[in-house]
Design brief:
single chain, 218 residues, Arc Repressor Mutant, subunit A, 2 domains
């Protein structure tokens, strides 16, 4: 069974909704167990207890713990894609990235999410399969943001195609660094940090001549 099995052909919408709800229930329970005990110490029995269902029932949805992590990675990838789509829906993609800093900081400052991300990264350092999952998800995100940035620069008559990936990687590194920091030192609500982050991202997204690509709120 795959980590995120597609809806079966002919399955009724209500039945599929129930399956999706059960899978989400397992993922939340597993995420909590991974955060508290670590990937290897969190047994399927512990996950089943936290989910309120039998171990056999969990195996109906996920082949093993690796499949659960794959689904968690895919869930995070889907959420990031939702953010990308929200930026694309704005009239100015570059400005939307800067205006989205506050929401991005709020996501980065969630200790529960940060702890889980650190646990998955630690497992990826030991497990080539998990590492491959993360690389694939990262590549999809990079490609999506680069494609949108390319269109945004073209609309402004700028040509930064050669630096697109470097810009996206650096912006991502800023937020990922804050996610790691959240584990031991939550940032809380910090207007100064948000202000500085907006200015940093505006500088990163500037064109080759150093011209600002978007207005930076004070």
């Amino acid at each position: 069974m795959s980590a995120s099995a597609p809806p079966c052909r002919g399955r009724k919408p209500l039945e599929q909704a129930q399956i999706d709800a059960r899978r989400a229930q397992v993922l939340e329970a597993a995420a909590d167990c991974f955060r508290r005990s670590g990937f290897h110490s969190a047994s399927m029995a512990a996950i089943s207890k936290a989910a309120g269902m039998s171990t056999g029932h969990i195996y109906h949805y996920f082949e093993n713990k690796e499949a659960i992590i794959a689904a968690l990675v895919e869930r995070d990838s889907d959420e990031l894609n939702d953010v990308l789509n929200s930026f694309r829906a704005q009239s100015d993609f570059l400005q939307a990235m800067i205006d989205g800093v506050d929401e991005g900081l709020a996501r980065a400052n969630r200790q529960d999410r940060a702890a889980l991300k650190m646990e998955i990264l630690a497992e990826a350092a030991r497990n080539p399969k998990i590492a491959s999952m993360l690389r694939d998800a990262d590549r999809r995100a990079l490609d999506g943001f680069c494609s949108s940035l390319r269109a945004a620069y073209a609309a402004r008559g700028a040509d930064d195609a050669c630096d697109l990936e470097a810009k996206v990687v650096l912006v991502g590194a800023l937020f990922n660094g804050l996610i790691g920091r959240t584990v031991f030192s939550p940032t809380r609500d910090c207007p100064a940090l948000a202000k500085t982050m907006r200015r940093a991202i505006a500088a990163i997204l500037s064109d080759d001549d150093g011209a600002a690509t978007a207005a930076v709120p004070r």
